[in-house]
Specification:
Chains A, B: Belongs to the SIMIBI class G3E GTPase family. ArgK/MeaB subfamily. Two copies of one chain form a homodimer. In chain A, 47% of the residues lie in helices and 11% in strands. Chain A has eleven helices and seven strands. In chain A, helix 7 links the parallel strand 6 and strand 7. The longest helix of chain A has 23 residues. The two termini of chain A are 40 Å apart. Bound molecules: guanosine-5'-triphosphate (2 copies) and magnesium ion (MG) (2 copies). One magnesium ion (MG) binds next to helix 4 of chain B.
């Protein structure tokens, strides 16, 4: 693997080099991992100073994420911006990755020279969803992309993961009436900087406006965060199909980012995220030892005893640490 | 330390034995820890079959937690039930523990023979907030208490900790108008089984009713959990001072618990919690190694380099694990 050539290619903004580099960070092979780390160190040392706006985007299936990315991405490339699209899909039940099949829904964007769309890898390749995506973001940034969109389907912890690696977080919701309004997972609203009610068009428009007001109300019930200027987080309506509200949404993202830059929150968040991922990698490395035999088998055996009340959690933990983890 | 005598005393429901045992589990001394574990094992082996209703109670300062516990606790002891009150206060800025000074607010309950109130220990004694409280709950249960109330001031992660050791979780809120409705920390609503709007009396009554409706609305925006029967989580108004709404709240707690018992959620939750704490103790034991020198110093040094972008999170973690943690 010619790391130097790959690094040069990426810094020159070559899509093929970028694609190959992402494949490298996605690989589970130990030698690939070594190369990936060398590449990333190499790019880090290049001190390119490029900084993309990293945008997380979450929403349940069918809410219109792909359609939104297509329209929103086309608007941005139309303004001369380079746009990369990545996906985090930890469950990855969908064969072949989440965006791949969607390239049909991103018909124009996928043919756009200033856009780069990367499907999430199939499950077999997964070697740390968070690390993979986080490193891919860094590669896109090094390749000179202005905006990196990270899509995630709202399952479990994936939003948290995405929020910890992006500068701002969008939650895409569908218009809903009355009883249907149960769809937002608790704790997700917590992360949103901007809630976008999509499909605000045709028959759904008035419903979208009402839903938007409902969520605006719900957002007001939550405590203000230091990283939010007056009026944020906010709820807006958009139509990915009719391409309305997109410019306004982009304006809000820019003004929010601007404010955070000036207030020092932007850099602080990035530094905090870097520390967060460092500590997470250390912890994961340490905890990975629990997944190796014979620790793993012993842990499960004892967990069953604990569940059954035969031994208390503390005593069982004590035994395990002493007998299997050299503590 | 005569563990056998202590165990016998607790099983006989003696308050002095219970108080001494809690002091033991709170201690940070290694020999005390050994005794505490022996005691807990001994009680576990006694197979007493006693099961309290473990109720978590959270709310910001001044919302009326102490007053509520006084009124609610007196109502329960009036019905012949034995009530224990514990506190989780991880920040413990308040000197001498959070309930101690409050005993004046629990004037009647603190003199009630069927009630047991335990202040949270001062910070110096803290040796794992979660473990201490969880084990104290177990001791109260072994001592034959019917209801164990675990109070926490809503700071950071303490609600999560309490929710993971209780059977149901109450969130106490104050009536608020319009702009004031920003007080609920995101993610907390997620845990609540019942939201109680306190101070629904006098001038505040109509405001409390409106606030209650607002939160009922907000709860409907959240996704239904499998452990909830129709209509839960719900919001109710109470007045701790006028003692209204308390019987209704208790009724709801009982019917919720009943439903969960029949549906198997109650036992499943307890078993899940036991496993959770076992795994948490194992992880904590392992991660405690990061807090010992020289690992600790190296971690902090490298974290600063990571924050400054001099080295990437993955590379830094790799180095730390290799050089300091025998990986
Ligand atoms: N009316 C209307 N329909 C839309 C809009 N955006 C998306 N849709 C439709 O909603 C359906 C789902 O859109 P997608 O973009 O595939 O949704 P998704 O969130 O990517 O779904 P998954 O990839 O399955 O998670 C499609 O039929 C779209 O045409 C919109 O703004 N208005
Ligand atoms: N009107 C009214 N006042 C109440 C009620 N409950 C409590 N209060 C008052 O609210 C104030 C705070 O009550 P506490 O019970 O000390 O509140 P707390 O939540 O325990 O506060 P901290 O211990 O500081 O976290 C006191 O002045 C109480 O008298 C109620 O039901 N109605
Ligand atoms: Mg899609
Ligand atoms: Mg109090």
């Amino acid at each position: 693997m010619d790391i130097e050539a790959l690094a040069t290619g990426i810094l020159a903004g070559e899509r093929r080099a970028l694609a190959r580099a992402i494949t490298l960070v996605e690989s589970g092979r130990a030698d690939h991992r070594q190369s990936a780390m060398a590449l990333i160190e190499r790019l880090n040392a290049a001190d390119h100073g490029r900084q993309a706006m990293r945008i997380g985007l979450s929403g349940t299936p069918g809410v219109g994420k792909s359609t939104f990315i297509e329209s929103f991405g086309m608007m941005l490339t139309g303004q001369g911006l380079k746009v990369a699209v990545l996906a985090v899909d930890p469950s990855s039940a969908r064969s072949g990755g989440s965006i791949l099949g969607d390239k049909t829904r991103m018909e124009h964007l996928s043919r756009e020279k200033n856009a780069f769309i990367r499907p999430s890898p199939s499950q077999s390749h997964l070697g740390g969803v968070a690390r993979r995506t986080r490193e891919a973001i860094g590669l896109c940034e090094a390749a000179g992309f202005d905006v990196v969109l990270v899509e995630t389907v709202g399952v479990g912890q994936s939003e948290t993961v995405v929020a910890e690696m992006t500068d701002l977080f969008l939650l895409l919701l569908a218009p809903a009436g009355g009883d249907e309004l149960q769809g937002v997972k608790r704790g997700i609203m917590e992360m949103a900087d901007i809630i976008l009610i999509n499909k605000a068009d045709g028959e759904l428009k008035s419903q979208a406006v009402r839903t938007c007001a409902d969520y605006a109300g719900a957002l007001r019930l939550l405590r203000k965060r230091p990283q939010d200027p007056e009026g944020f987080p906010k709820a807006l309506t958009v139509s990915a199909v009719e391409e309305t509200g997109l410019a306004k949404a982009w304006e809000e993202m820019q003004s929010l980012t601007e404010w955070r830059r000036e207030a020092g929150h932007f850099e602080a968040r990035r530094a905090g995220q870097a520390r967060y991922w460092f500590e997470a990698e250390v912890r994961e490395g340490l905890l990975a030892r629990l997944k190796r035999e014979p620790v793993k088998g012993a842990l499960e055996r004892m967990a069953l005893e604990v569940e059954a009340g035969e031994v208390t959690p503390a005593a069982a933990a004590d035994t395990l640490l002493r007998d299997y983890l050299g503590g």
